[in-house]
TrEMBL record, chains A, B:
Lineage: Bacteria, Pseudomonadati, Pseudomonadota, Betaproteobacteria, Burkholderiales
Keyword Cell wall biogenesis/degradation belongs to the record: no
Name of the protein in its database record: MBL fold metallo-hydrolase
Family annotation (PANTHER family): PERSULFIDE DIOXYGENASE ETHE1, PERSULFIDE DIOXYGENASE ETHE1, MITOCHONDRIAL
Keyword set includes Metal-binding: yes
Keywords: Metal-binding
Gene3D superfamilies tied to this protein: Ribonuclease Z/Hydroxyacylglutathione hydrolase-like
Length: 233, 233
């Protein structure tokens, strides 16, 4: 049965944060929380009466600082990160194929999708794919740092994501144009970068992008490897 | 079972638009769509593969123009409005207590909540209250035009909304601070204007607000009485 997450937005970095709430009220998880919205996110949790048990990261972000460490301290939630992202303070280091359980009967399937970064992962919950910066609505993440690889991203998307049920909802890590949700079926047929394009064509396209270095990268990346906590754990 | 809507935002007027999608994929409705986001909203409907059958208004808005008429023309959806809001081109004129059906087994309960405007209504679907400008997160709509009445708003909220199940999620028509969703229980206990305040105290508070006239009122209100269509139907 289709159950949507609650989608929250950071206008500064155009980042989406997601709250996943068990429909029976038995627990909740948050994906990719942003440090400057800690109070907002805690207020949502309080207003909705949620018990937050898991904080997930899709990867070590280069464009904003996570609030995972502080959320963990305030709620007792476990910090859960991709094992290949170099975030040692997180107690749960996720591997491809893991099933993360929360609440009475919720589970999140962990899908390793290298490409945007070498360690990037996507999360699948009740027909909803949280695609991080791997697959965006009508686009995809950049592949030019943190072990990124256009060839890997192409394989991750075409072999692991585009093989999911076409009705799976795609909730991206960012959007810059108000496109907040899509489906696997639509992206397979229409994605401006990935649909109807060979692996070689995609690699050539990505190599030609010449993107500027993320403004916050030198601050955000070291901070995020400590879950956003200045002094580690 | 708790199923969330998809919440979309207009940053210019801080308006929330909601897409309600039947979990079994059998149909969809949209509440309070904004004209400048017609393309965005149509793109969401296309990407999600939805069949839009109903366009709802919570009231005749004074701060933005609706896209209801154009959405109706593009999708064949029925325009559904509160009967007391003076929007004659809408084919469905809703009354308090109506049950609006969409999809195979969805229904939206219609609750007349005068106060922000005389005709304002709230809609209840699967444990989600779409509260328009009647009840906002930690606040409420103004009551100084379009037949507005602080006393009526107090009665609507305290007698009709605060008597709903405390876990009912409250999805407001606007928010100006990133507060996107709440619950009846939280608002009963904490709402800055309505919790722990008598009717007389509330009326006095609202009378003292001295709010400026909405900038777009002279444009938006006549347009919205025609479903946003310049020349009526």
């Amino acid at each position: 049965m289709q159950v949507n997450p609650i989608q929250l937005f950071d206008a500064e970095s155009s980042t989406y944060t997601y709250i996943l709430s068990a429909p029976d009220g038995s627990g909740a998880a948050i994906i990719d929380p942003v440090d400057r919205h800690l109070a907002r996110d805690m207020a949502h949790i309080a207003r909705l009466g949620l018990q937050l048990t898991h904080v997930l990261e899709t990867h070590a972000h280069a464009d904003h600082v996570t609030s995972a460490g502080r959320l963990r301290a305030m709620t007792g939630a476990k910090a859960c990160v991709p094992s290949g992202c170099g975030i040692p303070p997180a107690e749960v280091q996720l591997e491809d194929g893991d099933l993360l359980r929360f609440g009475a009967r919720e589970h999140i399937a962990v899908i390793h999708t290298p490409g945007h970064t070498a360690g990037s992962m996507c999360y699948l919950w009740r027909g909803n794919l949280f695609s991080g910066d791997t697959l965006l609505v009508d686009g995809c993440g950049r592949t030019d740092f943190q072990g990124g690889s256009a060839a890997d991203l192409y394989d991750s998307v075409t072999r692991k994501l585009f093989t999911l049920d076409e009705r799976t909802r795609v909730w991206p890590g960012h959007d810059y144009q108000g496109q907040s949700v899509s489906t696997i079926g639509w992206e397979k047929r229409h994605n401006a970068r990935l649909a109807h394009r060979s692996r070689d064509e995609f690699v050539t396209l990505m190599a030609a992008l010449e993107l500027p270095r993320p403004r916050l990268m030198d601050v955000a990346l070291p901070a995020n490897r400590k879950l956003g906590l200045a002094h580690g754990i």
